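Record 1 of the preview.
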Amino acid sequence: MIPLRLQIQYMDKKLVGLITVFLLVFGVFMTYIFARQSGGSLSIRANQSKIASCPNSFLFATNVDSNNRSETVTAYVRDDASNGLANLAFQCTSTLGSLSPDNLVTNKMGQASFTLSSTTPGVATVSCTLPCGLFSRSVTVKFN
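->
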């Protein structure tokens, strides 16, 4: 007959072996499930906060009633967390006058400034198009 102490050591080794086999099989199973759900390959998703948010982006003009022939307008492009987005290209349009430059790119703070010029008196409304769509907000400058 085998002494009780040796029987316990033998059973402990079996238990450790069974737990090791279980963990290996479980790991292979979970890898298969996750790989299958992501289209057959493991993937890393982009950080969603780097997408422009139209509700959080806005335009700002320093003087909305201008006696000058030009006015500086600044666009602030932000993500869903209201962080400025750098190096984002977009375009703006005006109902009166012209914009310079035509194509804008944001700086590291998510800002892009341009000049609105008009020789004709009237009200200019500036709107910008971002990847998220048309700005929901516009700025209006009155030229006297």
